[in-house]
Amino acid sequence: MSLDRTDVERIAHLARLEVGEQELAAYAETLSRILGLIEQMNAVDTEGIAPMSHPLDAGLRFRADEVTETDQREVFQGIAPSAQAGLYLVPKVIE
Amino acid sequence: MEWETVIGLEVHVQLLTKSKLFSGSSTRFGAEPNTQACAVDIALPGVLPVMNKEAARMAVKFGLAVGATINRRSVFARKNYFYPDLPKGYQISQYELPVVQLGKLVIDVDGERKEIGITRAHLEEDAGKSLHEEFEGLTGIDLNRAGTPLLEIVSEPDMRSAREAVAYLKKLHVLVRYLGICDGNMQEGSFRCDANVSVRPRGQHAFGTRAELKNINSFRFVEKAIEYEIARQIDLIEGGGKVVQETRLYDSVRNETRSMRSKEEAHDYRYFPDPDLLPLQLEAGFIEETAKSLPELPDAKRERFVREYGLTAYDAEVLTGAHEIADYYEAAVRAVPGQSKLTANWIIGDLSGYLNRDNLEVTAAPVTADMLAGLVRRIADNTISGKIAKEIFEAMWGGEGDADAVIEKKGLRQITDGSAIERVIEDIMAQNPKQLEQYRCGQEKLFGFFVGQVMKATQGKANPAQVNELLRKKLSGTPA
How much is the mean pLDDT over chain B? Predict the structure, then answer.
């Protein structure tokens, strides 16, 4: 399987990445090579092997259900581009 | 053509934890914007999620209660999309390996039992809130809700009518409240429902194209939205059109569904296992311990109420509709054993009426279970009539003390002294010779008139059964 320019444009859009016109071909080629590697791995017989979701052979650590955080709104909003009335402001999102 | 409706529901249940799914921020509702959104919730660089154990326990509780498989190992995945109220650019959810799989819920519709399959239930975090109205050309973002734990419960497409969907939803609502894993508050968004609705010609095996309905935040709207959508799809197909797979928003003011977005690639979430989180592994001991902590479930409680208290199926259903009501009932019955039916009537009737009128939860009722039991006791031992009892109930509700205190204070003790009632009857007969004459000439409906007069003269305190009996004798002229 290989990717063409349209695929790259679509993936870039989904990830909100700006990819210049002249870069498309290069990305299409390198990303296709990654897919080639995946295909190679896909060809291996994995019957009876549990899929790995994480490289560490361990389980999740839990925390107790306790409120440990305090209000730091002023600190956080101090570095926000725009905030008012306690809200972070962003360009209008139209549904 | 005859059409068959196919409905599956996705319910988002906000878990009643104190802190968020992956951070130590408070989940309390109604705080000032962004005062409960920490560095993890707003996705500052370098932060890492740490899982709340209680959220896992609540998910397991639910799974056990619906007879599902609890996956000893489940995996968190990233669901990628861009929206300003999702600071990380992805939602932590579960995809291929959810914590709960393959359960079921039994519903009753028109006396018919039906099993609705539960495909899965998975843990995920909620997003923040976008406020579009307040700022010109800008959207305000409140991230207090971001990271709040949700259990998304996905049903099989097993429902065939809007009423079945509502029955399932109500059943689920009662269950999560019994389990103490959700407050069930639909106005505050603690219990949210999306419905996948499609139609197909009856007898056809393959499903039709479905529309996903959102924004249906009450049981009534769920029913109306689904019914509107069924009619829309049938009209569309019969008119030669085709149903498009899309998300539709329900508008309760206009009672219609509207296409929300047919955004291209909207559903390409590019899930992948979250590298920040190891698999969620549950020890057998943890699951066993959780199983032991399960309360008596609604169906079991309803059956027990019928068996133990001799209630009708309907009464038992109403009384077990919320565990708080059931607890209230059992506390009252313990205080007046043997009066289970009368107590049930008072709870289903007057108590519920007053609670609705004053918009109160039963746990905040001014008339406690003990007080109601005290009232029932006085009805049962004939101290007061049922009619006077209503007056006393109102006084108790108004804070005038328990039943005995109100009876004493207002002198409401029932007159059961036969000779006293007889004297009243004799007076009334003497004052109404014309009616007496007519009655004795065969106008028997005047009996009610005399009952009314006796009750009026005794301010409703005469024992009604005795009044009837004595009146009959006196009016007919039979010697007492």
Answer: 88
